[in-house]
Specification:
Shape of chain B: flat
CATH architecture of chain B: Orthogonal Bundle
Largest sheet of chain A: none
Shape of chain A: flat
Low-confidence stretches of chain A: 262-269
Structural class of chain A: mainly alpha
Order of helices and strands of chain A: HHHHHHHHHHHHHHHH
CATH topology of chain B: MetI-like fold
Number of strands of chain B: 0
Structural class of chain B: mainly alpha
Radius of gyration of chain A: 29 Å
Strand content of chain B: under 5%
Strand content of chain A: under 5%
Oligomer: heterodimer
Number of domains of chain B: 1
Number of strands of chain A: 0
Mean pLDDT of chain A: 84
Helix content of chain B: over 70%
CATH class of one domain in chain A: Mainly Alpha
Low-confidence stretches of chain B: 1-7
């Protein structure tokens, strides 16, 4: 068979328009109308999400009186760093920060380590009792002892008012365990393990030398879920800790931001005028605190987004 | 004994199908390293899941710390009766259901709509920008979100009230009014979480075969029609699963946020079952009474989950199990 080669000038020549019939006006306008509508809605959504965040940033460096009078809209007014200075001068915040780092690092290592180990063991089809053990985990997703009896268990264990009460009770989420298990099931082929076993590798050796190095995306995802989760959590600290030198940052933030614990964020003197002034400065401190406490995660966001999306999808589809 | 005689006649059979105990034991022992890997998680659920589950019997007892879970006197359903007949019962239950249903009806569809819109966009830059911006509040902690609500909605100096006054309105005391608790709660929930859920649906949308869209385009279908007949059916399984999960968590939603948003002035609408458990149980140390309320809540939840899963399996052939 011979093929006729088409000369290039013939290819480039303009063809007559293929559409012979007339597309109705409504049909022709449908897509442009959709595009305009979609972009309009999304622009409103973007503004609705971004503007409050932006406002908090500019408010945190503005003169509190200007905010009070409603003069801050798009640019900071009466630039001041007093809010930030007060935060950095507050020992409670530094202590909270230190505690949060300690709890987050310890807690995340414990959680991720346990989840990876258990997830791998449960992904092995040759694990005796696999189905029964999995059932034990699944049951806990549907039945829960509840807040009160969990509190009593923590108390009976003597963990109240220790860092372990913040770290341990919520250490392992079954959902994450399932994500880990299905990751291992899909990405660690049985043949690989059989080959390693023929070479005399034990389960430990295979897990630590082969499985873990092959599971970096999963490890990253799990680390991020737990770092963000531990960093942002406050409730366990609220119920299990009563010594405020052990409070994590979120609890310190709650006391200042929400309970309006003015005494904690500034000194108070008697007369009304200085009270009002102190209140305004306290408001300013709140803006600055919101910025300071959210900034680390916001900066890390672009790097984390990819992993989170992946994990969210595994979670949604693998159920 | 008849079996022994028959084996003599027939040729020797392979070993019986049921493996002897010693063989299974050897397999279990051989896998000891796997059990070691499993151990921390097993110890965890034993201590922090099953022990509290066992301890939930205090809901049927009159708990006192000296006697422990087992030693405290049995009182049957007295704690449940006390809750059901208390003046709090109706209010707390009503508040919980309101918050949950509003959240489900209003907050659940928003990310789906957003995802369908974003998915149709051609401009990649704009698509990426939308995702990143809408997604970002998901990483802010509940404490900070509620803190933001307090400063932005403050009646003295908040952004929203300043804007209201600019347009000639009267300042509204959002955080201190029972009427505003639910709208503020649901709206801020959408503000924080719609972007994250949107990304999940977007990921599901990328799984739809582009050939379907191409074919529909050739047939002259516009974007509205393609969304209706290709995109929505395509992500229906994901929607269903997420919906069932949302139902299963219906009465657990946002307890921490409700607790943080609570002020003395809005308890009329903000006291939900779980905040009530917290107040009665941990702040007033009525352990048995509040454990009963908690148990009541989780049983209700479980019933909802099972019912809706059953309905979903019947209606759409998609279900959790």
């Amino acid at each position: 068979m011979t093929t006729r080669t088409i000369p290039s000038h013939e290819l480039l020549r303009e063809r007559p328009p293929a559409v012979a019939y007339k597309v109705p006006l409504r049909a022709r306008l449908a897509d442009p109308a959709f595009n305009t509508l979609a972009i309009a809605i999304l622009l409103v959504a973007i503004a609705a999400v971004a503007y409050p965040l932006y406002f908090i940033v500019i408010a945190s460096v503005s003169d509190p009186n200007q905010i009070y009078e409603g003069k801050v809209w798009f640019l900071p007014a009466g630039f001041t760093l007093e809010g930030y200075q007060r935060i950095f001068a507050d020992p409670a915040i530094w202590r909270g920060l230190g505690n949060s780092i300690l709890y987050t690092v310890t807690g995340s290592i414990i959680s991720v380590g346990s989840i990876l180990g258990a997830g791998y063991a449960l992904s092995r089809k040759d694990l005796p009792g696999r189905k029964f053990i999995m059932l034990l985990f699944i049951i806990t997703m549907f039945f829960d002892g509840g807040l009160i009896s969990r509190y009593l268990v923590v108390r009976d264990l003597g963990l109240l008012n220790t860092m372990w009460a913040v770290i341990l009770p919520g250490a392992i989420g079954v959902w994450n365990l399932i994500i880990a298990r299905s990751f291992f099931e899909h990405s660690i082929p049985d043949e690989l393990r059989e080959a390693a076993q023929l070479d005399g590798a034990s389960d430990f050796q295979f897990f630590f030398r082969m499985v873990l190095p092959l599971s970096k995306p999963l490890i990253m995802l799990m680390l991020m879920i737990h770092v963000v989760g531990n960093w942002n959590s406050f409730f366990d600290a609220l119920i299990y800790l009563n010594d405020d030198t052990k409070y994590p940052l979120q609890l310190v933030l709650r006391n200042i931001l929400i309970q309006s614990d003015v005494a904690a964020s500034g000194n108070l003197s008697g007369d009304v005028e200085s009270y009002a002034a102190a209140q305004r400065v306290a408001e300013l401190t709140k803006y600055a605190m919101i910025v300071i406490s959210s900034l680390p995660l916001m900066i890390a966001l672009p790097f984390m987004q990819k992993h989170f999306t992946k994990g969210a999808l595994i979670g949604a589809v693998k159920s | 004994m008849s079996r022994a005689t028959s084996t003599r006649i027939r040729p020797p059979r392979p070993r019986p199908v049921k493996k002897p105990i010693s063989f299974r034991l050897r397999r279990v022992v051989g896998a000891w390293q796997l059990y070691v890997l499993l151990a921390p998680a097993l110890v965890y659920i034993a201590v922090f899941k099953y022990w509290p589950m066992y301890g939930v019997q205090i809901a049927f007892r009159s708990y006192n710390p000296a006697d422990g879970f087992l030693g405290s006197p049995w009182v049957g359903l007295a704690n449940f009766q006390r809750f059901v007949s208390s003046f709090q019962f109706e209010r707390v239950l009503e508040n919980t259901v309101w918050l949950a249903v509003l959240g489900l009806l209003i907050a659940f569809p928003v990310p789906i709509v957003l995802a369908l819109l974003v998915n149709q966009l051609q401009a990649r830059r704009f698509k990426q920008l939308t995702q990143t911006v809408l997604y970002s509040p998901a990483f802010i902690s509940t404490v900070v979100i509620v803190g933001m609500l307090f400063v932005l909605l403050s009646s003295r100096s908040g952004l929203i009230n300043n804007a209201l006054q600019l347009f000639g309105g009267q300042p509204v005391f959002f955080m201190g009014s029972a009427d505003w608790f639910r709208p503020v709660y649901v709206a801020s929930d959408i503000w924080q979480h719609a972007g994250f859920s949107m990304v999940v649906y977007l990921a599901a949308l990328t799984g739809i075969d582009p050939a379907l869209h191409d074919a529909a385009k050739v047939d002259g279908a516009n974007k509205f029609q393609r969304i209706r007949h290709i995109d929505i059916p395509g992500i229906m399984p994901v929607i269903t699963v997420l919906f069932i999960l949302a139902i299963g968590n219906l009465l657990n939603v946002g307890f921490e946020k409700a607790l943080l948003m609570q002020t003395n002035l809005n308890t009329q609408t903000s006291e939900i079952v779980q905040t009530y458990v917290y107040h009665a149980g941990l702040q007033q140390a009525q352990f048995s009474y509040s454990a009963a309320i908690g148990l009541f809540n989780s049983l209700l939840n479980l019933a909802l989950l099972v019912t809706f899963n059953w309905v979903a399996r019947r209606a759409t052939k998609t279900s959790l199990w």
